[in-house]
Amino acid sequence: MTSEPLRQPSIAEKMVEGLEEFADALESGEDVVQRFNCHKVVLELVPTPYTPELVRETRRELKASQAVFAQFLGVSVNTVRSWEQGRNAPSDMARRFMDEIRGNPEYWRKRLREVIRPKAIAP
Hints:
Elements: H1 11-28, H2 32-35, H3 52-61, H4 66-73, H5 77-84, H6 92-103, H7 105-115
Helix pairs in contact: 4-5, 6-7
């Protein structure tokens, strides 16, 4: 008589079992930090202060006009113009986005090319 090898649980089955175990611990009020591996992730991201020159340089890294750069960042052309002329400073969110662009300009140039759609000009 041959015995069949024991079937190993699939990854999905292991995940479901782990989630059920976690849910049971939560429902019972158990200290999950003591029972499970828990990690806290902290991102220390402080946006760079952007001078008008640095805004312009970042836009030029993308090889974009003010209008295209504004659309890409989700702001108006007047907003980009005011940043580049020093009348206003970019928001923290805009500065973080520009930090990401400056960190990997080739990636963001590629992303920009992927989303550009030619606009038909009326005769």
